[in-house]
Structures are given as C-alpha cells and as structure tokens.
Write a structure and sequence with these properties.
CATH architecture of the largest domain: Alpha-Beta Barrel
Strand content: 15-25%
CATH topology of the largest domain: TIM Barrel
Bound molecules: ligand LLP
Distance between the termini: 55 Å
CATH superfamily of the largest domain: Alanine racemase
Number of helices: 12
Low-confidence stretches: none
Shape: globular
Mean pLDDT: 95
CATH class of the largest domain: Alpha Beta
Number of strands: 20
Length: 429
Amino acid sequence: MDTFEYRNKTLFCENIKIEDIISEVGTPAYIYSKNTILARYHELKTAFGDVDTLICFSVKSNSNLSICKVLAEAGSGFDVVSGGELFRAIKAGGDPSRIVFAGVGKTDKEIRYALENDIFMFNVESLSELGHINALAGESGKVPRVALRINPDIDAKTHAKTTTGKKENKFGIDFTEAEELIKQSSRYSSVDLCGLHVHLGSPIYTVDPYVRALRKIVKLIQKCRDNGLDIEYMNIGGGYCISYTGEEVIRPRDYASKILPLVKEMQCNIIMEPGRFIVGNSGILITRVTYTKETLHGKKFIICDAAMNDLIRPALYDAFHRIWPVNTSIKMPKVEDPHKSTIKKGMDLVDIVGPVCESSDVFAAKRALPKVGEGDLLAIFSAGAYGFSMSSQYNSRPRPCEVLVDGDQYRIIRKRETYEDLVKGENFT
Ligand code: LLP
C-alpha cells in the first residue's frame, strides 16, 4: 500500500479519503500515516540489524506527542536538543535510558533536568560544555555517559543552511581539540567518556560523506583507547535522505552496506538519530485555495490558506515539495527537474502562495498545476518532517491541526489553534 495514493481521482492516506478527513477538520491540516512511520522505523532497524543499534528518533523533525508515542511503543529512543524536547520525549512514553541529548548550548538547567532523568548520553559539543556537565554531574553524584561530537570538516553537500559538519559550522569539536581533550580526560572524572558522535547535515543523498567522516574517526577511536578511554558507542547522527520529487533515492540498506563495515572495525555499538527519514514522507499538508489571481502581466497566482508560517521550508531553503490537487483526473507527473515545470493539457503555470505579508511566502514558483479554482484542495507532499515543528504564529495565524491516520481510522492529534490561543500567556491589563 502506498501511503498517499490517488484512487478514483481522489487522494487517500492509507485507507481514508483525504477529503473525508478535511470535511471534519478543515484546512490547513497536517495529515500523517502511522503505518508509514512504523515501516520507515523498521526499515532502518533491519538495515542496521547486524550490529547492536539504538535508533533515536530526532524529535526536532516532528515533536508531536502522539507521533513520538508511536515510535516509543515501537522501541525507539529519542534524540533531543533542548529541555523542552526532553520533556516531550518523556511525556510521550520515551524511555530516558534511550535518550541522547545534543546541541551546542545546553544550559545548566537543561543539564540538571537530563541528569535527574538519567538519560542515556550527552553529546558534548565543546570543552566548556564538558566542564559544566562534569561539575553538575559531580554535584548530583551521577556519572553520565558522554560522547564527544566531532566536527570532521566534511562537506555533506546539503543546502548551506542545513550543513553541520564543516569547520566553519558551530557544531562539534575538531580533531586537534578532541585529541588534546582525550589526553586530559582524567580531569573529567565525573563523566563516563564512552562515545563519539558525528552529524554531518541533512538531507544527505550519498553515503560517501558518512564514510569519509567515519574513516577519520576510526583513527581517533584508536587514540582514545591508547589513552585508556573505552569507546563503546559510535553515534552516526541523522541526515538520511528522502525523496521529495518522487524519484528513487538511496535507502537505509545502501547506507548500512558502507557504514556497517566501518563501525564493525571500530568495535562499537551504533547510535543513530534519524528524523526526516522516518517522518518526512509520512506526512502531508492540506490547504484550500482561497483565491486565484491573474495579473495584467499574465502571471497566475494560486492563493491558498496555508502559508510560510505553517511550512517554512520553501521560504527558508528554497525547498522543493510536490503539490497537487486532492481531487483531479490528471496524474501527478514525474518530476524531471524541480526547477522546471512543463505544462500539459488542462494545466496552468502558477505560483502557489500563502496569505502572509512577505514576498517569500511562496510554496512553489512557476509550477505546472492542473487548473484549480476557489475552494479546491491542494496536497503539499513530504511535509511530515520540519513542517509543523518549525511552524509559527507569524501574522497572528493560528497553527493548523494535526491528524494521524491508522488504516481506516483517524484521530486529531493536535487541535487547530484558536484566536484565544494566540494571546494565551500575554499579560494584558
Ligand atoms: N542529529 C542531529 C545532531 C541533528 O542536528 C539533526 C538535524 C538530526 C540528528 C536529524 O536529522 P535528519 O535525520 O532529520 O536529517 N530544518 C531543516 C533540517 C535541519 C536539521 C537539523 N538537525 C529542513 O527542514 O530541512
């Protein structure tokens, strides 16, 4: 079963007509498929099954409690980057002993919160941070596991704004500093330095950057061991790609075939932090056409009721998302080139935009779309990762609802916000 497929000219999620869901919940709405999320999780688990692997779902990609709960029940751990994400992961039923905590700016408050909850591991990004964790651990009497996040200076060929493993990025510790730290590791006696961590960026469409980074790290592990540090865990981060255009992209087994031999050589257990791979293509955003507008210069706009505040990826990264009417007799074409659209019979070349007062509030420019009119529904595909979790109330727009589909059932997992929600918490006298 395809997660989102057209049957009889109308879009389904699993076994439910999108139109039926929307007639109850309205638009804009995020709709997720529970069984796709689980299938993606198990695909990764199977691909890396040769080695003891802890999969930690990256909460930042989709932090809805019900989504996290689905994954917690499947046995997933969680990758968090703030006290708030840790709170969510635990509230969703996540087992703290399967939670890893990354991020360059963990505050003392967040470190204490993580210590109180006995999380599995801190991914440490600087010497100053290590000092804080060591001191706070000493006070608490606990000896937390720590992995050093290495910045391997590898270009993962992602969008410039989502690359993290180059020397100019703020993330991780470079090799020279790591080697210094290893020599002085006895200074940090309140932590158990037993892992290394690397996250190169996202999404990464070839396995090559992982291989290059891990090859560099193999040597560092040896140095750690020579200095008496027992490195048991190699955290390979996230970044596994998904297809945004419908074309084939590499799958977990392709990553695993090259990564596993290296990790075996390291004699380490694997930790990984996938986000997008699990939820990206498990969710869509449905929006309704409010108006169509044609300028005197012949430009056609489709103005819809979702906007950049609901899904910011196109505005922020020029990200490509397929967009197609929910009801249509025209088959969604193969995307030959995301930057070029060819119109066929019954289609228009349009800009699909939201109502926000910013010129960057554009979901797609010069895109071929079947002719649509006021009130028609559009599906924005591949919106399950970094969609709702990056949404805001900009322009005082209540955020959309979220719906989870399971077979022929669905459930609202986050209510649409109201105007009252917009002002909740403001002190107004
Ligand atoms: N681990 C760490 C340390 C990360 O920083 C990230 C993502 C992940 C794991 C998960 O990466 P994933 O498997 O989801 O690719 N907002 C951007 C993506 C930013 C990713 C930030 N870090 C987007 O919409 O494309």
